[in-house]
Write a structure and sequence with these properties.
heterodimer; A: 61 residues; mainly alpha; 67% helix; B: 228 residues; CbtB_put (chain A); membrane (chain A); transmembrane helix (chain A)
Chain lengths: 61, 228
């Protein structure tokens, strides 16, 4: 009730460049995590995430 | 903004990973374990033949069957789910959903790009299935997912017909090139188990993506008024 904030959403108030940077960083980090668990050739990671890879349909062996 | 991305990906990823793990534990993992019995039967046979010349190989860590393996798989699911959640939340900063249900469409798009399209050429497979060289398949898988994701963005987020034609070409291209296939088709597990597994994996991933998409949009829109 006593909020002084402007009626704009946060997305609209942040510049496109800043949003592009955030989106790129998030996508890169996200893809990195998926690669780590799903595509890494390191044996221990392969073994640990083996069932994840098979059920997600990632190429495994 | 970064806080919201992390919050969205973290919570939506965690919950979607739990749903996937539940489906896995009840439905998929039993089939993987069954397929491994066929695989290890063959391995035991070949190993006894060369047991005399067997040297101690350095084997990498692998979780023991049971709770270790379950936890390890849960961890794997969590990493993958948070990863996909980060991609979704990142895209939301460019095109924010105004309602949580819109996340269902994002989830469906994720499913098409990261599950359906790659599985047309490389269906989910059980352990002990003949397949082409791993790196080649991974390359095809990633290219197909990326091409499909770009195609869906062009199809649904642009309004120019020329771009939509490019999108159709991008959708078709990986399948025209074709996925790397093994020299001979062979599977140790019976065909019925293989089919059942593929169906289970495709359905579980559909549930996973719908949950991930919807929850990501829900957390994202819920937070929109509170944070910058």
């Amino acid at each position: 009730m006593n909020s002084q904030s402007l009626p704009t959403t946060s997305t609209a108030s942040i510049s496109l460049t800043q949003r592009l940077i955030a989106a790129s960083l998030a996508c890169l980090l996200g893809a990195g995590l998926v690669f780590l668990a799903g595509f890494s050739h390191i044996d221990a990671i392969h073994n640990g995430a083996h069932d994840t890879r098979h059920s997600e349909g990632f190429p495994c062996h | 903004m970064y806080k919201r991305i992390a919050f969205t990906a973290g919570f939506a990823g965690l919950l979607a990973a739990l749903v996937l793990s539940l489906l896995q534990g009840l439905w998929i993992t039993p089939m993987i374990l069954e397929a491994e019995t066929y695989e290890s039967a063959v391995e035991a046979h070949t190993h006894t033949a060369d047991a005399l010349i067997h040297h101690h190989e350095e084997t990498a860590w692998a979780p023991d069957d049971g709770w270790q393996r379950t936890l390890s798989t849960l961890g794997g699911n969590l990493v993958v789910a948070v990863g996909f959640g980060l991609i979704l939340a990142g895209l939301f900063t460019l095109r924010a959903p105004s309602q949580a249900w819109q996340g269902l469409l994002w989830g469906a798009a994720g499913y098409l790009a990261f599950c359906m399209a790659p599985s047309l050429g490389l269906p989910p497979e059980l352990p002990g299935t003949a397949a082409a060289e791993l790196t080649a398949r991974q390359g095809w898988w990633v290219s197909t997912a990326a091409a499909t994701a770009c195609a869906l963005a062009l199809l649904f987020l642009t309004r120019q017909w020329a771009l939509r034609l490019v999108a159709l070409a991008l959708l078709a291209l990986p399948h025209i090139i074709g996925a790397p296939q093994p020299a001979g088709q062979a599977s140790l597990a019976p065909e019925s188990l293989q089919h059942h597994f593929q169906m289970a994996a495709l359905i579980s991933n559909a549930v996973f993506w719908i949950v991930l998409g919807w929850l990501s949009a829900w957390f994202y829109t819920r937070d929109i008024a509170e944070n910058t």
